[in-house]
């Protein structure tokens, strides 16, 4: 029934968008004037800025082909799927209140075991009356890392760094709720602190949810498009005491198609790297899970370089188990051949806007990901650290401000792990068509 009503709302909203395309302009009422904008979605706002309403979204359609370690038998497989299919609704009420709703019909942007009917990626309410501080409550992703802070629409590579797989819980809401305070100091400092109750499938023996705390701080003495110097620090902690959970630390190594949540993938032949941990980790095995992160970026004109380092420590709470330690990093270089600079807003990168409407903007990039786990428990007790190394070389074409076409070649190499056929390296490519409205 909910899906039926939601579908009706979507149809009505799209009809409004089509109508607005034909009658864009300023509408005067007996109250405040209303301005209707249709560029980049449908936006309706009062001129006194007391109320606004914006309907938008994004569609990312991916096709990938891969072999070697990426499949169990080493043979070539492919995958076609919607990476994201968002409908987004947001706006302002009574000037100081803001709301944001994002529904993902592909259910492929979150973690495993999402509902096959999609899910709410965000449903939040924020109070901005304490400017420059904003207080947000509801369902939304915690903040951890520069690439995560940057919208999936405008990250350089199709997939965010594989190093994030080591700390995947730090920046995902996992179906829970949270509260976060964020704000700026002057033009160069940004910070956020949040508390979250999440992991409905990982409750403790009393049915209590997993509690998590996140902290992020950014210093950007240079903070304009094409002139960026950015430094950041992150910390996250969650309580695993008396909690049974899936403790596996796994990575797709940049190739989502080996196992997708919403679309065709490699099926039983898809292979994901397990670096440590165990499924069905019993309650009482571990206590506190901690993660740290450092981030840095520099941009000058069409050239940008960025990198992050993450570290995780899963602390044992039983003599039968030992701590699990993980660390990872990435470094990325990007250059816009046509000369445009990457957009930047304090704490995150933004879109590239083509200056030439005929040829668009063309960007080339390279990124290296490295991830490693030290686990002396179970099957990993008698082997050295399991490591993953991923090279990403790609090309992005921003045809206009709404359409982006991307292609990336990915080469992965693993140490102390292999697939069923004995392969420890794999190759693949991913192509994406993105439409943002």
From TrEMBL:
Domain of life the protein comes from: Bacteria
Cited InterPro entries: Porin_dom_sf, Porin_O/P
Polar residues: compositionally biased ranges: 266-276
Signal peptide (residue range): 1-24
UniProt keyword terms in alphabetical order: Signal
Region (Disordered): 256-276
Protein name: Porin
Native organism: Pseudomonas vranovensis
Lineage: Bacteria, Pseudomonadati, Pseudomonadota, Gammaproteobacteria, Pseudomonadales
């Amino acid at each position: 029934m909910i899906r039926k009503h939601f579908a009706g709302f979507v149809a009505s909203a799209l009809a409004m968008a089509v109508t607005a395309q034909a009658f864009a302009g300023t509408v005067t009422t007996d109250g405040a004037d209303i301005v209707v904008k249709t560029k980049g979605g449908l936006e309706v706002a009062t001129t006194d800025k007391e109320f606004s309403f914006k309907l938008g979204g994004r569609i990312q359609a991916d096709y990938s082909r891969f072999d070697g370690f990426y499949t169990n038998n080493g043979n070539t497989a492919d995958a076609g799927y919607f990476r994201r299919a968002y409908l987004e609704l947001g706006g302002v009420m009574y000037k100081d209140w803001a709301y944001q709703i994002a529904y993902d019909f592909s259910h492929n942007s979150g973690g495993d075991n999402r509902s096959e009917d999609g899910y709410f990626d965000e449903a939040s309410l924020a109070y901005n009356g304490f400017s420059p501080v904003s207080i947000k409550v509801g369902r939304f992703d915690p903040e951890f890392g520069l690439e995560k802070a940057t919208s999936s629409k405008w990250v350089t590579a199709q997939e965010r760094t594989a190093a994030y797989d080591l700390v995947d819980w730090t920046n995902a809401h996992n179906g829970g709720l949270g509260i976060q305070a964020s704000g700026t100091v002057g033009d160069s400092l940004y910070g956020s602190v949040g508390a979250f109750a999440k992991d409905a499938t990982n409750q403790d023996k009393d049915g209590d949810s997993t509690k998590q705390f996140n902290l992020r701080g950014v210093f950007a003495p240079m903070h304009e498009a094409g002139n960026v110097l950015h430094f950041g620090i992150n910390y996250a902690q969650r309580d695993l005491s008396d909690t049974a959970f899936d403790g596996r630390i796994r990575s797709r190594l940049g190739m989502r198609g080996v196992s997708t949540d919403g679309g065709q993938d490699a099926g039983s032949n898809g292979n994901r790297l397990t670096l440590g941990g165990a499924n069905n980790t019993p309650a009482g095995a571990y206590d506190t899970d901690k993660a740290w992160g450092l981030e840095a970026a520099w941009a000058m004109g069409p050239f940008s370089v960025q990198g992050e380092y993450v570290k995780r420590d899963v602390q044992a709470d039983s003599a039968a188990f030992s701590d699990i330690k993980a660390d990872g990093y990435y470094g990325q270089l990007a250059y816009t051949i046509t000369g445009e600079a990457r957009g930047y807003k304090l704490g995150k990168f933004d879109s590239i806007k083509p200056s030439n409407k005929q040829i668009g903007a063309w960007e080339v990039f390279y990124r290296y990901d490295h991830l490693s786990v030290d686990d002396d428990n179970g099957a990993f007790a008698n082997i050295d650290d399991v490591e993953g190394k991923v090279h990403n070389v790609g090309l992005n074409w921003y045809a206009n401000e709404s359409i982006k076409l991307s292609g990336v070649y990915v080469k992965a190499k693993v140490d102390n792990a292999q697939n069923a056929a004995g392969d420890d390296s794999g190759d693949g490519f991913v192509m994406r068509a993105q439409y943002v409205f």
